Amino acid sequence: MTSIDFSGLRSALADVVAIPVTPFAADGSIDITAHRRLLRRLLDGGVRTLTPNGNTGEFYALTPDERDAVTELTIDEAAGRATVVVGVGHDVPTAVAAAEHARDAGAHMLMVHQPVHPYVSQDGWADYHRAIAEAVPGLGIVPYVRNPLLSGESLAALGEACPNVVGVKYAVPDAACFAAFARDAGLDRFVWVAGLAELYAPAYFAGGATGFTSGLVNVAPSVSLGMLDALRAGDYPAAMKTWEQIRTFEELRAARQSADNVTVVKEALASLGLCRRDVRAPSRVLPEDRRGGIAELIAGWSA
């Protein structure tokens, strides 16, 4: 591969990596107007890294054409104000096609979803990511690691083969496992992004992370960016004050194997009048008797 300077992309990952929701209209289609409004709200709130087609964006519930549309819309709305890290996944040809589309649309990086397959070998995991990385050598690649059995050595080998693998979204809920994995893979070789958002960010920053993903940022950008500022300053007491503020909200999202992960975010946005609460199966909207509790939780959060 041609030598490319990825330093700017690395800096973009050492930040709040926002995972925008995908709002739906009453007829079930993507609500383009609401989507643009929500993206502008993030950008105006100071967010500078966006991941369209992430899990909070209901990646697996979107059709290929819808995923392409979300990619294009996000890049258009970002208009140079943010680095765009497009989520890709599924089988290798589908992921490569999405990667090439993202490149042609003007994306900067790809976040590669954990391969969805009942049988994943370590070498096969590396082959999967290498096929995508080699198809778009000019884009930064960020593997999404959710498998606690994956070894740091496997990631190190992938990074050796593919210089454009610049960061890692690490989402195994074990801070000690993360710290060991990062050091086995190369603490300085990759930018480490805490992939379990604000609830795990302080512990993962202590282990070497310099950025974190966020779905909550859709609701209150200033809250997420405030935690980042505290963590960058090494002010863990201040970061934990934010942690205490958002704890119940994030625990509701994580409960029952994250059954209501997107649902809770969209309910919060609906309570603010920013989009409909609709989600696609296999997610489901909250029962009516639980909706008021979400509005109460976010009352007083500044945008």
Automatic annotation (TrEMBL):
Which Gene3D superfamilies did the record assign? Answer: Aldolase class I (3.20.20.70)
Q: Which UniProt keywords apply?
A: Lyase
Coiled-coil spans are none
Taxonomically, the superkingdom here is Bacteria
Q: A single Pfam family, by name?
A: DHDPS
Q: Does the keyword Lyase apply?
A: yes
Q: Which family does it belong to?
A: Belongs to the DapA family.
Name of the protein described by the UniProt record: Dihydrodipicolinate synthase family protein
**Which source organism?**
Streptomyces flavidovirens
